[in-house]
Specification:
single chain, 377 residues, mainly beta, four-stranded antiparallel sheet, 28 strands, 40% strand
Length: 377
């Protein structure tokens, strides 16, 4: 037993030496004039810096590549990387990406088509190359090299998928991060890369309250949680439980999403929250753009706090996470809205505006989501 001690000590020293992998995050509005949050990563060898959108509801990563039709001027240059590898239709990764197309016989490059943002689409070729996240290098990372885009919603420098599927960053990294990551999103008005994406269990908050992550086999990429109710001020909003309950068959329930901007509830739930909020706010109510509950900013001090009740966890939203202001500053608006009235309007989405300056931890190994206060502006 004693003779095995040196090996044991070597193993323990590797644990002690583990450092936090923290990838910088910035509001896309300040960097690329888009509403999503972006992470600073490098692709290829030598690394080419890209500002990729952080998206917890997508699995595949993709970036615009040189020669892309309809892409922005900043593209990844595959020919400049010494570690680029191609993938054909015979690779297991090809069938893991949504929208792939392959001929019935023979081998060819793995192509795929995806829609994004409701009004845009892309075509891409699946490739492999090194990705650098802070000081970590993941060799052979599989992602899409975009050939063409249509519409105006495709992130100009690509997207980093952090969903739960087999081709997402967390799945591809395997044991490297133990299925754990977290992020702190700075205020959307903050300019600097002051937020962070922390990868792996090292450096995560020691004491963090958690709620179970639920899995939907029909929508396997999404992070579902059990939202049990909502309070406005001291009033628990009367919401029938069937309007919040998780149902894998219909897709109903609540997800945490980094790619949606404002939290959206199914219409009956939103109307109940909104009506109670209006009752507790002084003065006349007006609308502004997507927001239907605006009031004079001078009455903001009287605005009630909104609490999201999850299983085992209550989140009291800070005012900056529940109100948004007109550009003139004269109006304050409830920064939530109803889900669109269509066939997919069964899903409640807790969006990035409501996640500002919070550490949101995803532990896929233990199927739990944690939330802790953290200022990262």
């Amino acid at each position: 037993m004693a003779s095995k001690d040196p090996e044991r000590l070597k193993y323990l020293s590797t644990l002690a030496d583990q450092k936090t992998t923290a990838v910088p995050i910035a509001p896309g509005q300040q960097v690329l004039k888009i509403a999503n949050y972006v992470v600073r990563v490098k692709l290829g060898t030598p690394g080419q810096q890209m500002f990729m959108v952080l998206d917890t509801s997508n699995d595949a990563a993709w970036v615009p590549c040189s020669g892309c039709t309809g892409c922005s001027s900043t593209t990844f240059l595959p020919n400049a990387s010494t570690t680029l590898g191609s993938l054909d239709c015979s690779g297991a990764q090809c069938s893991q990406v949504r929208g792939f197309s392959c001929p019935a016989t023979g081998s060819s490059a793995c192509l795929f088509n995806q829609s994004y943002g409701g009004d845009s689409s892309l075509t891409a070729t699946l490739v492999q190359d090194a990705i650098t996240l802070a000081n970590d290098v993941i060799p052979g990372f599989t992602f899409g090299c975009i050939n063409a885009v249509s519409g105006g919603s495709i992130p100009p420098q690509g997207l980093l998928g952090l969903g739960r599927g087999p081709i997402s960053l967390i799945s591809q990294a395997g044991a490297m991060y133990s299925g754990v990551f977290s992020y702190c999103l700075p205020s959307f008005k903050s300019y600097y890369f002051s937020g962070s994406l922390k990868l792996g269990p090292v450096g995560q908050p020691k004491s963090i309250r958690t709620t179970p992550l639920l899995r939907n086999p029909h929508r396997p990429s999404l992070y579902y949680v059990n939202l049990t109710g909502v309070s406005v001020g001291r009033i628990k909003v009367p919401i029938p439980s069937e309007q919040l309950v998780f149902d894998p068959n219909t897709g109903a329930g609540t997800i945490i999403d980094s790619g949606t901007v404002i939290t959206r509830f199914v219409q009956p739930v939103y109307f109940a929250i909104r009506d109670e909020f209006r009752k507790q706010v002084n003065g006349p109510i007006s609308s502004l753009g997507a927001f239907d509950t605006c009031f004079a900013a001078t009455n903001e001090a009287e605005a009630p706090a909104i609490t999201l009740h999850f299983e085992g966890l209550n989140l009291v939203l800070p005012m900056e996470n529940s109100l948004i202001h007109s550009s003139s500053g004269s109006l304050a608006c409830l920064s939530m809205a109803a889900a669109p009235n269509n066939v997919n309007s069964v899903l409640n989405v807790i969006a990035n505006l409501q996640q500002q300056n919070l550490r949101i931890m995803f532990d896929t190994t233990n199927s739990r989501l944690g939330i802790a206060r953290e200022l990262c502006n």
